[in-house]
Design brief:
By secondary structure, the chain is α+β, with helices and mostly antiparallel strands. It is 43% helix and 22% strand. It is globular. A two-stranded antiparallel ribbon has the order 1-2. It has helices at 5-17, 38-49, and strands at 20-25, 28-34.
């Protein structure tokens, strides 16, 4: 996977803005994942691992 910073930030910001993610494989729905608590969890991860979170969850 080509992990470009702008792509990663776009995905993380989208995860912060949405209420749920729909997961599909081969165009078949598999699951819906709630994003409740994403911002709090992302900030905690940043604090624990020592990376800034302001670019995704100010």
């Amino acid at each position: 996977m080509n992990n470009k910073t702008e792509t990663t930030l776009a995905v993380l910001r989208a995860m912060r803005r949405t209420s749920a993610l729909d997961v599909s494989f081969a165009d078949k729905p598999v699951a819906t994942i709630s994003m409740d608590g994403f911002t709090k969890a992302y900030r905690y991860l940043g604090t624990s691992c020592g990376f800034p979170t302001g670019d995704v969850a100010p």
